[in-house]
């Protein structure tokens, strides 16, 4: 399942927090919390929101990243259709 992780660490653009869209085998938030329990890192496949030539947003995979659960401020299940405000 895909999740949106809000991380309490600066982004490369200098924002104090940033979000990452990541896919993990956990079927829901409860399973994800169990996977993070006592873990030093959580391995997720990272996705970026990118627009095609028609301006339609879609998710594209960008490899795996390891997230330290200590910097996660919030996790939300990702919606099926990506959008950017």
What's the layout of helices and strands?
Blueprint: E1 2-7, E2 18-23, H1 29-36, E3 42-51, E4 57-67, E5 72-77
Antiparallel strand pairs: 1-2, 1-5, 2-3, 3-4
Overview in brief:
By secondary structure, this protein is mainly beta. The protein is built from 1 helix and 5 strands.
Characterization of this structure:
With 85 residues, this protein is mainly beta. It has one domain. It contains 1 helix and 5 strands; from the N terminus they run ββαβββ. It has one helix at 29-36; strands spanning 2-7, 18-23, 42-51, 57-67, 72-77. The longest helix has 8 residues, at 29-36.
Major sheet details? 5 strands, antiparallel
* H/E topology pattern: EEHEEE
Mean pLDDT: 91
Roughly how many Å is the radius of gyration? 13 Å
Helix-and-strand structural type: mainly beta
Question: What sort of overall outline do the alpha carbons produce when their principal axes are compared?
Answer: globular
**Uncertain spans:** none
Number of helices: 1
Q: CA-to-CA gap between the ends?
A: 23 Å
Strand portion: over 45%
How much helical structure, as a percent, in the residues? under 10%
Structural domains: how many = 1
